Amino acid sequence: MSRKKPVVVVTRKLPDAIETRMMELFDTRLNRDDTPMSQTELVEAVKTADVLVPTVTDEIDKSVLTQAGDNLKLIASFGTGVDHIDLATARQRSITVTNTPGVLTEDTADMTMALILSVPRRVGEGERVMRSGDWSGWSPTAMLGHRIWGKRLGIIGMGRIGTAVARRARGFGLSIHYHNRRRVQPELEAELEATHWESLDQMLAHMDIVSVNCPHTPATYHLLSARRLKLLSDHAYIVNTSRGEVIDENALTRMLAARELAGAGLDVFEHEPAVNPRLVELDNVVLLPHMGSATIEGRIDMGEKVIINIKTFVDGHAPPDRVLETMF
Ligand code: 8YV
User: Which of 39, 48, 58 shows the shortest CA–CA distance to 8?
Assistant: First the structure.
């Protein structure tokens, strides 16, 4: 990369403090009005940029990457998930990819916990009753949900976020069960009193609440397929703060509508920003607009990580948050 300031194209509006710092450090092109870029605009961006800073809303696919200029050497993504980037093509073209892991763990775990509480306790429904003006007062049998304490929570993906969810869930009296590519360290298992399930199928059949906390990769696409969803009992709840693609959303919607599942708390969707219209009609779901990590503190920490990744790379060092295909 040349000695002059690198051209950094940022695809979405970032917190002011981050944009200001990026303008000081780099030849930064901002997206001040925050309109998502079309694929054509993304191609224009990768033709001119030394560094691209995309987010989850940008599809950095093969067609975009193969049209990139020779100067594009780094994709410093603003976010932890990298399923919007074709990592194989990036590697073939010697483009380094970085992400922002670690800094949104606690916020995402908080939101996961909020959904774990909200769905069985019918928080969304209660809120809608209050806003409708139809509340006729307290009744011994009104708005009865299900107790959290003493239930079994099955966590799919016991990485940073899954572990942070488990720590919180124990405070609410949930017993911890998990399925993960690798069994976690015995010390962590002991701390969480967690039960490891080698077989996801077996775990699903025994859980009251299931939380999806694994990344979306080719291996986890529709991990919760129609077949696996059927293994859950009809009193089970599902929470997803990871990626919509991990669950077959149509199958989930059908089962929720047929009460073959008790409910779902979804922060992410298979075809964002589109949401299955039949989901919106269901009472037994709580729907959030992909806001699991949406805190100002988290966004600033993410921006700081992006800046550090770009700066170290431009200065000729290995950026700390390099993403390798083999990680997934
Ligand atoms: C981010 C996320 O807000 O980091 C992730 O993987 O899912 C979100 O919490 C988003 O990805 C930013 O690009």
Answer: 48
Q: What is the pLDDT of residues 139-193, one digit of tens each?
A: 999 999 999 999 999 999 999 999 999 999 999 999 999 999 999 999 999 999 9
**308 in Cβ contact with 320 (< 8 Å):** yes
Question: What stretch of H or E contains 24?
Answer: helix 16-25
Q: Please tell me the distance between residue 3's alpha carbon and the centre of ligand 1 in angstroms.
A: 32
DSSP helix/strand/coil, 114: helix
pLDDT band of 327, cuts 50, 70, 90: low
Options 41, 59, 260, 272, the catalytic residue:
272
How far is the C-alpha of 74 from the C-alpha of 309, rounded, in Å? Answer: 9
39 CB within 6 A, ligand 1: no
Q: Ligand 1 centroid vs 293 CA: distance in angstroms?
A: 7
Q: Is 243 a catalytic residue?
A: yes
Is 196 considered catalytic here? no
Distance 235 CA to ligand 1 centre (A): 30
Confidence (pTM): 0.96
CB distance 95 to 73 below 8 Å: yes
* pLDDT at residue 324, as a whole number: 87
Q: What domains, with CATH codes, occur in the chain?
A: 7-103+295-314 (3.40.50.720), 105-287 (3.40.50.720)
CA distances from 258 to 141, 247, 253 (A): 23, 17, 9
